[in-house]
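Good morning N.,

You mentioned wanting to compare the apo and holo forms, so I went ahead and generated the holo version with adenosine monophosphate. This is what I fed in:
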Amino acid sequence: MDNCIFCKIVKGEIPAKIAFDGKRVIGFYDINPQAPVHILLIPKEHIPTILELKDKELKDEIFSAITEIGKEEKLKNGFRLVVNIGRDSGCEVLHLHFHILSGRRLDWPPG
Ligand code: AMP
Ligand code: ZN
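and this is what came out, ligand included:
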Protein backbone atom coordinates (compact mmCIF):
# COMPACT_ATOMS: atom_id res chain seq x y z
CA MET A 1 0.00 0.00 0.00
CA ASP A 2 1.53 3.26 -1.17
CA ASN A 3 1.28 5.53 1.86
CA CYS A 4 1.78 2.87 4.52
CA ILE A 5 4.92 3.36 6.61
CA PHE A 6 5.33 -0.36 7.33
CA CYS A 7 4.94 -1.29 3.64
CA LYS A 8 7.74 1.21 3.00
CA ILE A 9 9.91 -0.57 5.57
CA VAL A 10 9.18 -3.90 3.85
CA LYS A 11 10.21 -2.37 0.50
CA GLY A 12 13.36 -0.88 2.03
CA GLU A 13 12.19 2.67 1.31
CA ILE A 14 12.38 3.58 5.02
CA PRO A 15 15.27 2.26 7.10
CA ALA A 16 14.63 -0.07 10.02
CA LYS A 17 16.77 -2.27 12.20
CA ILE A 18 15.72 -5.77 11.21
CA ALA A 19 15.37 -8.34 14.00
CA PHE A 20 13.82 -11.20 12.02
CA ASP A 21 13.37 -11.87 8.32
CA GLY A 22 11.03 -14.64 7.22
CA LYS A 23 9.31 -15.63 4.00
CA ARG A 24 6.15 -13.56 4.53
CA VAL A 25 6.89 -11.80 7.82
CA ILE A 26 9.50 -9.39 9.06
CA GLY A 27 10.45 -8.14 12.51
CA PHE A 28 12.13 -4.80 13.17
CA TYR A 29 12.89 -2.65 16.19
CA ASP A 30 10.33 -0.03 17.17
CA ILE A 31 11.55 3.52 16.58
CA ASN A 32 10.08 4.63 19.93
CA PRO A 33 10.79 1.63 22.18
CA GLN A 34 8.62 1.11 25.26
CA ALA A 35 11.01 -1.47 26.70
CA PRO A 36 14.72 -2.36 26.24
CA VAL A 37 13.61 -4.85 23.58
CA HIS A 38 10.68 -3.70 21.45
CA ILE A 39 10.22 -5.55 18.19
CA LEU A 40 7.35 -5.17 15.73
CA LEU A 41 6.52 -8.35 13.84
CA ILE A 42 4.49 -7.71 10.70
CA PRO A 43 3.30 -9.55 7.61
CA LYS A 44 5.17 -8.32 4.53
CA GLU A 45 1.86 -7.88 2.74
CA HIS A 46 -0.48 -5.09 3.74
CA ILE A 47 -3.19 -6.35 6.10
CA PRO A 48 -4.84 -3.57 8.15
CA THR A 49 -5.61 -5.40 11.41
CA ILE A 50 -5.86 -8.90 12.83
CA LEU A 51 -9.57 -8.82 11.91
CA GLU A 52 -8.59 -9.06 8.24
CA LEU A 53 -6.04 -11.84 8.77
CA LYS A 54 -7.65 -14.85 7.06
CA ASP A 55 -4.73 -16.71 5.46
CA LYS A 56 -4.04 -19.77 7.60
CA GLU A 57 -0.49 -20.26 6.30
CA LEU A 58 0.33 -16.66 7.11
CA LYS A 59 -1.18 -17.04 10.59
CA ASP A 60 1.06 -20.07 11.12
CA GLU A 61 4.12 -18.18 9.93
CA ILE A 62 3.36 -15.22 12.19
CA PHE A 63 3.03 -17.41 15.27
CA SER A 64 6.08 -19.51 14.35
CA ALA A 65 8.10 -16.30 14.05
CA ILE A 66 6.83 -15.06 17.42
CA THR A 67 7.77 -18.41 18.96
CA GLU A 68 11.23 -18.25 17.42
CA ILE A 69 11.86 -14.68 18.54
CA GLY A 70 10.43 -15.51 21.97
CA LYS A 71 13.08 -18.19 22.48
CA GLU A 72 15.95 -15.79 21.85
CA GLU A 73 18.39 -15.06 24.65
CA LYS A 74 17.36 -11.41 24.89
CA LEU A 75 13.82 -12.45 25.80
CA LYS A 76 14.87 -15.08 28.29
CA ASN A 77 13.12 -13.40 31.25
CA GLY A 78 9.81 -13.24 29.43
CA PHE A 79 8.06 -10.89 27.11
CA ARG A 80 4.71 -9.34 26.33
CA LEU A 81 2.87 -9.68 23.05
CA VAL A 82 0.56 -6.78 22.24
CA VAL A 83 -1.78 -6.28 19.31
CA ASN A 84 -3.66 -3.01 19.13
CA ILE A 85 -6.89 -2.99 17.16
CA GLY A 86 -9.08 0.02 16.56
CA ARG A 87 -9.44 3.49 17.99
CA ASP A 88 -9.76 2.68 21.70
CA SER A 89 -6.55 0.64 21.64
CA GLY A 90 -4.56 3.68 20.50
CA CYS A 91 -3.52 1.87 17.32
CA GLU A 92 -1.73 4.31 15.03
CA VAL A 93 -0.37 2.29 12.15
CA LEU A 94 -2.97 0.46 10.06
CA HIS A 95 -0.70 -2.38 9.00
CA LEU A 96 -1.02 -5.44 11.22
CA HIS A 97 1.79 -5.56 13.76
CA PHE A 98 2.57 -7.55 16.88
CA HIS A 99 4.51 -5.69 19.55
CA ILE A 100 7.05 -7.91 21.32
CA LEU A 101 8.20 -6.17 24.50
CA SER A 102 10.91 -7.40 26.82
CA GLY A 103 13.95 -6.53 28.91
CA ARG A 104 12.23 -4.95 31.89
CA ARG A 105 9.44 -5.68 34.34
CA LEU A 106 6.19 -4.72 32.60
CA ASP A 107 3.24 -3.38 34.57
CA TRP A 108 0.02 -5.34 34.70
CA PRO A 109 -2.72 -4.34 34.20
CA PRO A 110 -1.54 -1.95 31.51
CA GLY A 111 -2.65 1.68 31.68
P1 AMP B 1 0.46 1.12 17.28
O1 AMP B 1 0.19 2.22 18.25
O2 AMP B 1 0.08 -0.23 17.83
O3 AMP B 1 -0.13 1.38 15.93
O4 AMP B 1 2.03 1.05 17.15
C1 AMP B 1 2.74 1.58 16.08
C2 AMP B 1 4.19 1.50 16.46
O5 AMP B 1 4.97 1.76 15.31
C3 AMP B 1 4.61 2.53 17.53
O6 AMP B 1 5.15 1.84 18.66
C4 AMP B 1 5.66 3.38 16.81
O7 AMP B 1 6.72 3.76 17.66
C5 AMP B 1 6.14 2.42 15.72
N1 AMP B 1 6.70 3.06 14.54
C6 AMP B 1 6.17 4.06 13.82
N2 AMP B 1 6.97 4.37 12.79
C7 AMP B 1 8.04 3.54 12.85
C8 AMP B 1 9.23 3.37 12.08
N3 AMP B 1 9.49 4.12 11.00
N4 AMP B 1 10.11 2.42 12.45
C9 AMP B 1 9.87 1.65 13.54
N5 AMP B 1 8.77 1.76 14.31
C10 AMP B 1 7.88 2.69 13.98
ZN1 ZN C 1 1.20 -1.59 4.89
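Residues 25 and 61 are 7 Å apart (CA to CA).

Happy to go through it together on a call whenever suits you.

Best,
F.
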